[in-house]
Design brief:
The structure holds three protein chains of three kinds. By secondary structure, chain A is of the alpha+beta class. Chain A has a single domain (4-193), classed as Gcn5-related N-acetyltransferase (GNAT) (Aminopeptidase, 3-Layer(aba) Sandwich), CATH 3.40.630.30. Chain A has six helices and seven strands. Chain A has helices spanning 14-21, 24-29, 39-52, 96-113, 134-140, 165-193, and strands at residues 4-8, 58-64, 69-79, 84-91, 119-125, 143-151, 154-164. Chain A has a seven-stranded mixed β-sheet with strand order 1-2-3-4-5-7-6, with helices on both faces. Chain B has one domain: Gcn5-related N-acetyltransferase (GNAT) (Aminopeptidase, 3-Layer(aba) Sandwich), CATH 3.40.630. Chain B is built from four helices and seven strands, in the order E-H-H-E-E-E-H-E-E-E-H. The longest helix of chain B has 14 residues, at 82-95. Chain C is mainly beta. Chain C has a domain at 4-106. The longest helix of chain C is centred in the middle third of the chain and has 15 residues, at 83-97. The chains are: A alpha+beta, B alpha+beta, C mainly beta.
Chain lengths: 194, 149, 151
């Protein structure tokens, strides 16, 4: 069983996601509309998305190796012709320390491998350093948009960057080369001992 | 005459649940894909195809009528076991008066069509995208008089 | 030649005496007088892209699948003039404007379509399906022709 799997969001997931939409960090780091929306309104919106919104928005549930719900990801601004979309994700508070990176990686993989997306747009509000440090955000950001969002009583600046198929291929090749280098070094060390 | 395996007709919700339980074998089944399509989308596709699905043990088989030619049906199976497909063909011949059957199967997937008397009549190149790669689709045709057990 | 989007005033172009779903739907000379013309619906969902070749007819990219980046094309024309240019435009629109990787369609050999023109723009015969459609009181064979974008 893989460490993290992506499955389609279902009606049964609505209560858990509703709770997450109202969680403090979620509101600060993504949006706070759920605070002033009724349960029914939120549920109707999610139900509409899974029933008829496939062309413009898709919701996914991120699951751990035992099938437990770890968080959610969703894609918006889907441009099927251009093979691009914007990816958002939110991990449940109790899984944030260990699962965040894996969840993002699994969502990216699913979008490229199965939905055939070529370009994935990431947006992180600049104060949000839960996954990436301020320095890392600065390094990734291709665009910094001031006054991008207004959450929990404050204007926020957003960092935007794209990940393309070529970026991923390049990163995988670099990782493979690094692993190979370490393996070669270990092998050389073992031979030196014998 | 060989005894025909019994088929259990599936309503839409059951059909989707069964397809999802078949894992990778359901990918490409009548053009559907539970990995990229959620339940609502699968239900809409099944409705638009006018498809009917059946289970035979752990295998799901199904057909969609060719709306341009009511004596022809598109057929699919989630397993390489020929018996469930033979039962479906028997049903289609007897009760739907089908004379020919068409199957479109992702290349590289083990299937039972040749065992059931189908003949490969073509290849659709790069017809599918799955697991980061293009996949050809093989086209098979069977005739009622040669496919029935 | 350029394809443009469908407008309400193009409704007359959507019906004609051609086989349903045909890649190259050209007027059939001996269309039965009692048979209703073949009609395609105006666009109603994102699963299709209906284009108009002004003065000629329609080009419909249907069964659009954005994951597999393909569409089945059906064309309905009221005349045959400029067919070669139109077919080039159909392929270019599919690959460059819609960013598809493959387009395909049904060809019915019995009605003697100009398949040389299809081959000229890259289409190839990919499969032959016996008894796949109905014409003149009997089932007749159909072929799938397709073209794949070379990147």
């Amino acid at each position: 069983m893989p460490f993290m799997t992506v499955r389609h969001f279902t009606e049964a997931d609505i209560p858990v996601r509703t709770e997450l939409l109202r969680e403090n960090k979620y509101q600060t780091n993504l949006n706070d509309f759920a605070m002033s929306a009724a349960d029914l309104e939120l549920a109707d919106g999610m139900r509409r998305t899974i029933e008829s919104g496939h062309h413009v928005k898709r919701l996914f549930t991120m699951c751990g190796s035992k099938g437990q719900v770890v968080g959610f990801s969703w894609i918006t601004s889907i441009d099927w012709r251009s093979q691009t979309c914007e990816l958002s994700f939110a991990v449940l508070p109790r899984y944030r320390s260990g699962f965040g990176f894996k969840a993002v990686e699994a969502a990216h993989e699913y979008l490229r491998e199965q939905l055939h997306m070529d370009v994935i747009i990431n947006q992180v509000l600049s104060h949000n350093t839960m996954m990436l440090s301020a320095a890392e955000l600065d390094a990734h950001a291709q665009i910094r948009a001031e006054y991008d969002s207004y959450t929990v009583g404050q204007w926020r600046t957003a960092c935007y960057w794209t990940v393309t198929r070529d970026d991923v291929r390049g990163r995988k090749q670099r990782e493979q080369a690094r692993r190979q280098e370490i393996a070669d070094r270990v092998r050389a060390g073992v031979q030196g001992l014998s | 005459m060989t005894e025909i395996l019994s088929l259990q007709r599936l309503d839409t919700d059951m059909a989707i649940a069964e397809l999802k339980s078949c894992g990778g074998a359901a990918r490409g089944f009548l053009g559907l894909d539970p990995v990229t399509q959620n339940d609502s989308l699968l239900a809409a596709e099944l409705k638009s195809l006018q498809a009917q699905l059946f289970s035979a043990g752990e295998t799901v088989v199904g057909f969609a009528p060719n709306t341009d030619q009511p004596r022809q049906a598109y057929v699919a199976s989630t397993s390489a076991d020929p018996e469930p497909l033979r039962a479906l063909l028997e049903f289609l011949t007897t009760y739907q008066r089908c004379t020919t059957f068409v199957a479109m199967v992702p290349d590289g997937v083990e299937n039972c069509f040749a065992d059931c008397g189908f003949e490969q009549v073509g290849v659709l190149p790069r017809h599918r995208w799955q697991n980061y790669d293009w996949q050809d689709v093989l086209v098979y045709v069977g005739r009622a008089d040669s496919c029935r057990s | 030649m350029r394809l443009r989007g469908y407008r309400g005033s193009d409704a007359d172009l959507l019906a004609g005496p051609w086989l349903p779903g045909e890649l190259l739907g050209l007027p059939l000379a001996d269309w039965p007088p009692l048979a209703a013309p073949t009609t395609v619906p105006p666009p109603a969902d994102p699963g299709q892209e209906l284009c108009i070749a002004p003065g000629l007819g329609f080009v419909r990219y249907t069964e659009l699948d954005w994951v597999h980046r393909r569409a089945r094309v059906e064309i309905g024309l009221h005349g045959v003039d400029g067919l070669d240019v139109l077919l080039k435009t159909v392929v270019a629109h599919g690959f460059l404007t819609l960013n598809l990787s493959r387009i395909h369609g049904w060809v019915t050999p019995l009605v003697d379509p100009p398949i040389g023109l299809l081959a000229d723009v890259g289409f190839q015969r990919e499969a032959v399906l016996p008894e796949a459609t109905w014409l003149d009181g009997r089932p007749i064979d159909r072929e799938i022709w397709g073209v794949v974008r070379n990147d």
